[in-house]
Design a protein that fits this description.
Layout: H1 2-18, H2 24-27, E1 29-38, H3 45-55, E2 57-61, E3 66-71, H4 76-84, E4 88-93, E5 98-102, E6 111-118, E7 121-126, E8 131-137
Antiparallel strand pairs: 1-2, 1-8, 2-3, 3-4, 4-5, 5-6, 6-7, 7-8
């Protein structure tokens, strides 16, 4: 019985050490996309354009809660997003594991990222576009 308890305690400790806590400290920083995938409407040209543009983007969640988005894509849609995100702020809802980006007076409504960890990977899902991005912190 004691051996089983010790084994369970070890496994629980190991599993806890393997998972990352999603919090503001983890999110703060500069992120690049390792892989972007459309979860819906993947064959639509505009979805393909977004996936490609997001794949080439850098997302910065700064300590002062300012947000910057830069994409190396020349697509018009991505250029419009860069303009939209100028002077934006971000907040983190730890209960929902969501990052909301936008202007405070507009309820941070420009974009919502759902954040999760999966097999040691950090994944951001762009809620409205239904694009999943495996992220790498710079």
């Amino acid at each position: 019985m004691k051996t089983q308890f010790l084994l369970l305690a070890f496994l629980f400790t190991f599993a806890s050490a393997q998972s990352q806590t999603i919090n503001e400290a983890l999110i703060t920083g500069k992120w690049k996309v390792k892989k972007a995938t459309a979860l819906k409407d993947a064959d639509k040209p505009e979805t393909k354009e977004l996936v490609t543009g997001f794949q080439k983007a850098t997302y910065s969640f700064n300590e002062d809660h300012s947000f910057t988005f830069e994409s190396k894509s020349s697509a018009k849609m991505l250029e419009q997003l860069e303009k939209l995100f100028q002077n934006n702020q971000w907040i983190f809802d730890k209960k929902k594991k969501q990052i909301k980006v936008g202007l405070k007076k507009e309820g941070y409504s420009n974009m919502t990222f759902i954040v999760r960890t999966e097999e040691k990977k950090i994944i951001f899902v762009i809620e409205d576009a239904q694009i999943e991005m495996v992220m790498k912190k710079q």
